[in-house]
Amino acid sequence: MRRALNRLLSGRLGLWVLLLGGLTACSSGGDDPDTGSATVNWEHTTMTSEAGVARLRIADDAVPGLRYTAEITSGDWASFGYWSRYELTKSGEVGTSLGTRLIDIYYLDNTETTERTLTVRFTFEGREPVVLSLKQPALGNVTPTPSETTWSWPELPAKVENANWSYVTHFCPVYDQTLGKEVTKRNFSLCFDKTKRASWWVAYPMHSVYLGSLSRPNPDPWAFDPEIESSWQANLALGSYSGSPVRGHQVANADRDANRTMQYQTFYCSNSTPQNYDLNGGAWARLEGKVRNWKCNDTLYVVTGAYWDPASSNKTTDRAGNTCPIPTHYFKVLARTVRGNVRKAGDKLGDYKADELQTIGFWVENKNVSTEAQDWVMSVEEIEQKTGFTFFPSLPAAAKKQKNKTQWF
Question: Measured between alpha carbons, how far is 372 from 288 in angstroms, rounded to an integer?
Fold first, then answer.
């Protein structure tokens, strides 16, 4: 099993998909006047044979401040950590937000010939532990989903180790027309820097399954990212930044309007930076609209990021008084197949030749500009040199040298 886990880390295991269903799980019980019911159950209760994510949910009436410890006792093929695979224990405290009551468990493909059981020992402080379990069927003859067959996903930049950075991926329900039901897919991933109170980049797939017709929530439901320590984040639920910057989405609300879950996740404080008002509502918004139009059946892969020039000292504050450095620049890098409809189940984006792929980058100052996206074009390679990040690491180097405007505009 450990070999299988290592294959995941080196980029050779399949999609993590969760199909919604129903299965009874054990849970703690009884009422307590001090802690509420203090129960926990599976929220999504069917595991797939392919790698995926299962979720525990603490009861809504559990009293905030109640501490808990959860331990995976079924082996190292499941983990509380998405980026770090050996997190077999998790401790936390119930808060007032939904995010503090949800606990995700990520699991690998079951390549065995028989089903296996995910087992979690869960203990609320001051209570007896309970055991919760789910069955995972054997893999069998499962066909991987096109364009999501390997870890890492094509849009993820190479990971850089930094003590101030947190890597997080958020998942959401997506309707699968082939299956005729909702499945759980990745929404977006991010690299959050607590010294900036913002993310260096947010990476996400752009596809029609994420796009719908929901109106923007009113008022904006800004909230702390439940996967990141709240004290590190800008408190944007109180309002926008002080002065002229506005709460600038990295993944736009309009990029994720197929359902409320994916839409509300774009309002996590980790997905915002202090962006120039005119840029946010002007040329940058127009570029976001073009990116949505460039989606394709093979999936368009996008990384949107902010850049802080070390020489800049421009800062603002959130409404709680926390200092928030202001980015000097923004960028987008994109990758897709040229034809947009050639992907087959089991293939890898990086297996395509450079002339079968098209990439482009955009780099702009965080100010009111008179230019448009066509004037911001750079190659992915050039933006790598500016930022120090490695984008689309599975792609051939020649593909990242492209900056052919006529392919896009």
Answer: 12
Q: Which tokens in the block code for residue 189?
A: 């991933």
Report DSSP letters for 217-271, one per residue: PSS---B--TTS-GGGS---TT-S-SSS-EEEESS-GGGS-SSHHHHHHTTBGGG
- Strand runs (DSSP E) across 110-197, as ranges? 116-124, 130-136, 165-176, 181-193
Q: Minimal CA–CA distance to 405: which of 376, 385, 382, 369?
A: 376
Q: What is the pLDDT of residues 344-358, one digit of tens each?
A: 766 788 889 999 999
Q: Maximum CA pair distance of the chain? A: 67
CA-wise closest residue to 40 among 125, 122, 146: 122
Secondary structure, 3-state, 383-402: HHHHHCCCCCCCCCHHHHHC
Q: Contact, 104 vs 54, CB < 8 A?
A: yes
Q: How far apart are CA 34 and CA 63, in angstroms?
A: 8
Domain 165-407 class in CATH = alpha beta
Percentages (nearest 5) of helix, strand, coil residues in the chain: 15, 30, 50
* Closest to 52 (Cα-Cα) out of 92, 8, 22, 91: 8
Q: How does DSSP classify residue 30?
A: -
Question: Rounded to whole angstroms, how far apart are CA atoms 284 and 286?
Answer: 5
Reply yes or no on whether the pLDDT at 95 is more than 50: yes
**Cis peptide, bond prior to residue 219, ω within 30 of zero:** yes
Nearest CA to 188 out of 227, 246, 130 is that of: 227
Q: Are 55 and 105 in contact (CB under 8 A)?
A: yes
What is the CATH number that goes with domain 2-136?
A: 2.60.40.10
* Helix ranges (DSSP H) in 254-399: 260-265, 277-281, 283-293, 380-387
**Six-digit token string for 301:** 């892969």
Q: Is the Cβ–Cβ distance between 334 and 294 less than 8 Å?
A: yes
Give residue 58's identity as a one-letter amino acid code.
I
The 10s digit of each residue's pLDDT in 179-232 is: 777 877 889 999 999 999 999 999 999 999 999 999 999 999 999 998 899 999
- For the segment 314-342, the average pLDDT, to the nearest whole number, is 97
Task: Give the residue extent of every domain in the chain.
Answer: 2-136, 165-407
* Cβ atoms of residues 271 and 202 within 8 Å: yes
